[in-house]
């Protein structure tokens, strides 16, 4: 698969050099190969090489070849679940049984104590603040109930 990838990148670099020899073709090729969205690929290539029919044709070819290459790569790596497979045999000699252990609790990491002044907090009140004092209440006249 590595040789397929190098062949694909070599093709991209050669095409980019044909379209514009002043662009760093290898860097642009590696970059656009990693961009997933086809519209973004087109935007980047048109941005670097200009908007022309040959550039649009290159983008179309690039996207088609990249899609074919990725499909080929996925088929080679694909895990075939259509056939039955045996379970892996462990060689611990305990008759196929293993001890089950309970989950360990995660220990909480030590907390870091941060000085409040770093965060802009102060233990004292703002000296410019005007304290209003106690709430004034009206004395009840005799005979009034609360």
Describe the structure.
Residues 74-110, 123-146 are annotated as: Disordered. The N and C termini lie far apart (89 Å). The protein has a domain at 2-77. Helix 1 (2-19) crosses helix 2, helix 1 (2-19) packs antiparallel against helix 4 and helix 3 (38-49) crosses helix 4. Helix content is 47%, strand content 0%. It has helices at 2-19, 25-34, 38-49, 53-77, 116-119. The longest helix has 25 residues, at 53-77. The mean pLDDT is 77. It is an all-alpha fold and 146 residues long. The protein contains five helices and no strands.
**Number of E-state strands:** 0
Cα separation of the termini: 89 Å
Number of helical runs?
5
Overall residue-averaged pLDDT value: 77
Structural class: mainly alpha
* Uncertain segments: none
Strand content: under 5%
User: For the report, how would you describe the main beta sheet?
Assistant: none
Gyration radius (Cα, Å) is 35 Å
Shape: elongated
Helix percent reads: 40-55%
The helix/strand series, from N terminus to C terminus, equals HHHHH
Region (Disordered): 74-110, 123-146
Protein name: PWI domain-containing protein
Organism: Ancylostoma duodenale
